[in-house]
Amino acid sequence: MKWLCIIFLFFTFWLIPALAVAEEPYTFDPAETEKKPYHFGGYIEFKPILFGLDHDSAFYKLRFFNNPRGQNLLEANGRIQLEGSFEKSIFRVYAKTNTDLQSSYSGESVRTTFYELYGSVKPSSNLKFDVGKKTMKWGKAYAWNPVAFVDRPKDPDDPDQALEGYILATADYIKSFNGPLKTFSFTPVLFPVYEHVNDTFGNNYKLNVAGRFYFLLYDTDIDLMFMTGGSRSDRYGIDFSRNITTNFEIHGEFAYFRNFSKTVLDINGHPYQVEGDAVSYVIGIRHLTTFDLTTIIEYYHNGMGFTVDDMKNYYTYITRGYNTYQTTGDATILGKAQQMAEGSYGRSNAMANYLYVRFSQKEPFNILYFTPAVTWMMNTDDQSWSLTPELLYTGFTNWEFRLRTGIIVGARNSDFGEKQNDYRIELRVGYYF
Asked: What whole-number distance in Å separates Cα of residue 374 and Cα of residue 386?
């Protein structure tokens, strides 16, 4: 628990000055507006989580079959993110590190990695080259981005979290016009997958090529994307975003995947391969009212996702393995099920169709710096769902306090019903510097 004490002392050390600064009169220093060649900042977070466990669920049995827990499980998490940049003439270097710390029933762990580390050259105002580890952030949707071919998938339960990038080489060419087409840009990407270089992405020893064409056409943002090369199946995509009114926006993404394959279990627990083409898409809206209520609604179809019967066969497979372990001590089946969970079956939204709805209200009843929100996510195939109310307060300079409660509802053999938890309560205390 040493690192938890360090984080606690850090918060204690910075809290008193932060409270004092919050009440100091504002002063203006012209030197602060001058652009400096360097930048350094960071974020430190402490996040305890209380899980209410569902002992009858498949994923509880899979995770805790040999180490049963009580009704609740307390876990302490920490995160430290540091970022910095240096710019000189046409050159720029940017770095962002992420350290995740965790203390739970299984012990303590620390993992540090570069989320981004790349160099840029900008020989002209409309041309730039980047080489290194970078997050590309393709896609227009909020919770899911099926067209983000060169990015890691978002966690729809927390879409605003920073993501780790990949090692690549890319360029940006941008051109402005007079007329219906106001802006055009092209972003080619070289994406190597070799031993120790993006080796978790797909098939190794491949040099993949991706690209994005951007158009601002008739006040509509449009992107065309592609990726090919052999590490994953070839894929093509399009997205758009348009403001119908000042405060009402619609967006969508469409992705086509050629010759993808996935492993599926039959009713007897025997694996077999499913191959073919697939289509995934997102359609959504974002609306802001005059009283600062933001609404986001999205529907997601995952063409590579599992059907209700596919998941039912997997849950049955876990239960069979759990019963075998209880009677004989043989964990072979559970070991195979765990390998599948680490692949496609364990993804956040592994099935085919989901609905996402989020409401957030800024400063209700004139309570300054306070933003309550609620997020509802439903699997429309089996009608299981999760509800996540949250409270956010940012009244102290550079501080963020967020309390979230996740409630999960679903029948047996349903997507949310077989999660390891019935509920989750988390407190997130973060400091930016």
From this structure: 11
